[in-house]
Design goal:
Blueprint: H1 59-65, E1 70-74, E2 79-81, E3 89-95, E4 98-103, E5 109-115, E6 121-122, E7 135-138, E8 142-148, H2 149-158, H3 160-186, H4 189-206, E9 213-215, H5 220-227, H6 231-243, E10 247-250, E11 253-256, H7 259-266
Antiparallel strand pairs: 1-8, 2-7, 3-6, 3-8, 4-5, 4-7, 9-11, 10-11
Helix pairs in contact: 2-3, 4-6, 4-7, 5-6
């Protein structure tokens, strides 16, 4: 792992602003900045209070985890961990986007997870394994909060509710993976693409991003591999949605013109 930069409390970390939550947190359940860290490296607020997974933990459980938390940055196209590496950390996304994938025997990447929403977990599926079953790579500059697996396991022994929230995260990931496999097996190329665009729109809303433009950091090859189609078929499907008036495209992503039509296509209707 790279040397990771610790934020100053004076930095503007808007991704950790409690006002930007996509769900409401009881004020009495907010742990606030890490009390054990010096003011010059203390964040303005804690991701534990904003993460879908950790926000409902008791203040005592959050504060038990806080001394183990560290803030860090990865550059674009940098690897957080590789398949087969020893499992050492759990990562909580603060900003940026990460792809999680398996490398196939032919060298292609099968992307099975995109981590885009602040507070989402990376490497949660591998917490109780010796080595990682997948690889994780940044799609742009990424900021994470991370803690050592050993420290996390120690905290779970003191607070069972932490184990419960991790099980919830793993269950959610399994359900997403099952849905992805079902899409590959039951939908045609156009339906898979429409499903992906609906997913992008959903994460766009959850990240409180304005406008109808959806940034897509995956290359056409990566997107085709993730959807289980050839690059030629993907491009043909994109052009069809564009010609039918459902989307516009530019070099940075997609404009959704008719979301209801995309939802209908993705469902096979």
């Amino acid at each position: 792992m790279r040397i990771l930069k610790i934020f100053s409390h004076n930095e503007n970390i808007s991704i950790m602003n409690i006002k930007n939550l996509n769900h409401q947190i009881e004020q009495s359940n907010i742990a606030g900045p890490c009390p054990d860290k010096p003011p010059e490296i203390r964040c303005a607020s804690c991701i534990m209070d904003t993460s879908f997974y950790f926000s409902n933990l008791s203040v005592d459980a959050k504060r038990d985890l806080q001394p183990s938390l560290n803030l860090g940055r990865f550059n674009k196209k940098e690897t957080l961990y590789k398949e087969g590496d020893k499992c050492r950390h759990l990562y909580i996304l603060l900003s940026g986007e990460v792809k999680v994938y398996k490398t196939l025997h032919n060298g292609k990447q099968q992307i099975h997870k995109l981590v885009q929403i602040p507070g989402d977990l990376i490497a949660c599926d591998d917490l109780f394994l010796e080595t990682h079953g997948s690889s994780a790579e940044t799609l742009n500059d990424v900021t994470v909060c991370y803690l050592k697996c050993n420290d996390l396991h120690n905290s779970t022994e003191r607070y069972k509710e932490i184990s419960d929230t991790l099980m919830q995260a793993m269950s959610r990931n399994i359900n997403s993976y099952i849905k992805h496999i079902a899409n590959l097996g039951q939908k045609n190329a156009l339906q898979r693409l429409a499903s992906y665009l609906v997913y992008l729109n959903d994460t766009h809303q959850k990240r409180h991003l304005a406008g109808s433009h959806l940034n897509d950091l995956l290359s056409r090859i990566e997107l085709a591999d993730m959807l289980g189609v050839t690059q030629r078929t993907l491009i043909r499907s994109i052009k069809q949605l564009e010609s039918d008036g459902q989307i516009n495209i530019d070099k940075e992503g997609f404009f959704i013109l008719d979301l209801s039509a995309l939802i209908q296509i993705s469902s096979g209707n």
